[in-house]
Specification:
Elements (H helix, E strand, L loop, with lengths): L6 E4 L5 H8 L3 H6 L8 H12 L3 E8 L2 E12 L2 H4 L1 E10 L8 H15 L2 E6 L6 H9 L14
Parallel strand pairs: 4-5
Antiparallel strand pairs: 1-2, 2-3, 3-4
């Protein structure tokens, strides 16, 4: 499939099954996502909360009308760095058949442009320590592993 026809847009509720399938399409995702038809109500509640927040955007990448990628983009205000805004990218996924073909790069470049347009002075993301291929991919796009992150499960 030629990836020159990728379209990036805000996700619609009808995209939710495809998004969940992308999130579940690896060993880590299979262990934490729930594939069901209709989608688990927790996904719908999260989707509604994202849509209700002007600083959140759930994005899909579409190729020939099919959802082939997704990510969540958050615009985060802060006092540090003289009141700078930052972009936070989470849950990045590209369909397996398009990995390595440039679709992910297009999606991340588009996302960085969205952050610039919103006046962000930096964009950051997190990725699981076990995702070595993703680390190389992000570094190739200019992201630097400059900080050490910590999470606490609740």
């Amino acid at each position: 499939m030629p990836i020159s026809h990728l379209v990036f847009r805000t996700a619609a509720l009808a995209d939710l099954p495809a998004i969940i399938a992308l999130l579940a399409d690896d060993a880590l995702g299979r262990a934490r996502e729930v594939l069901a038809d209709p989608p688990d109500p927790r996904y719908i509640a999260a989707f509604d909360a994202i849509c209700a927040d002007a600083n959140q955007r759930l994005v899909v990448a579409e190729l020939h009308g099919q959802v082939v990628g997704t990510l969540q983009l958050s615009f985060v205000p802060g006092l540090a760095h003289t009141g700078a805004w930052q972009g936070q990218i989470e849950s990045v996924r590209i369909a397996a058949e398009l990995r390595g073909a440039g679709a992910g790069q297009q999606m991340l470049e588009w996302t960085v442009a969205q952050c610039r347009a919103r006046g962000c002075t930096a964009v950051q993301l997190t990725t699981d320590k076990s995702r070595a291929d993703a680390h190389r991919f992000y570094e190739k796009l200019g992201f630097a592993p400059s900080h050490l992150g910590f999470k606490r499960k609740l």
